[in-house]
User: What shape does this take?
Amino acid sequence: MKKIIIIDGGPRMNMNTAKLLQSFAEGAKSASSDIEVKTIRLYDLDYKGCMSCMACKLKGRASNICRFKDSLTSILEEIAQADGLVLGSPIYFGEVTGLMRAFLERLAFPWLSYNDYSLTAPKRMPVVLIETMNGTPEHNNSNHFGTMEWCITTALGEPHRIIGYNTTQVAKYDNYELGSFSEEAKHAWQDAHWEEDLHKAYEAGKQMAKF
Ligand SMILES: Cc1cc2nc3c(=O)[nH]c(=O)nc-3n(C[C@H](O)[C@H](O)[C@H](O)COP(=O)(O)O)c2cc1C
Assistant: This one.
């Protein structure tokens, strides 16, 4: 049985990022019964970013899977054997969330050789990046995964990206100090785009499940 691992790097259950990831999972499951889709919520785990323990670089015992022991260890081992990886995050201050970044440090540092600066994952696999944000396509031109995207591309393969723009951040804008947003404009955007965003995620799931 093939395995797809979805990493949810957002704190909110059942909000924009989680919904796109769920749609991806449904798409993948619809394509084949021979697929396990496992979603891991980083905010439910107790872990740190790279501890610089250097265990992955020990002479004669170097490892391209993180050796630091905490609640991420078994997940990183599972990803090493997976057939597809999905990384989802809301965008905070122009980047992925802190927990997603910490997770990516643990994923990618063991890939990196300090002998020749090559990046080698245990196994290459299809990758999908799912981002959600307040930004619109006109105001979004930065690489939110930063250097980590280059690591992912080199070690796993070129990722496919899905972006949920101009998301609804709260149910009732009037209840908050969110004066730069118009609830009406947000809802109009979402009415025009959200179903399509969900559909793109669903289709990406189907596509990945074909391997
Ligand atoms: C701490 C914080 C920082 C944010 N920074 C940005 C940002 O830099 N750019 C942006 O477009 N949206 C930003 N947002 C909005 C979120 O990215 C957006 O609401 C996202 O869809 C939330 O995902 P969720 O609904 O899955 O929680 C920020 C939200 C929070 C809470």
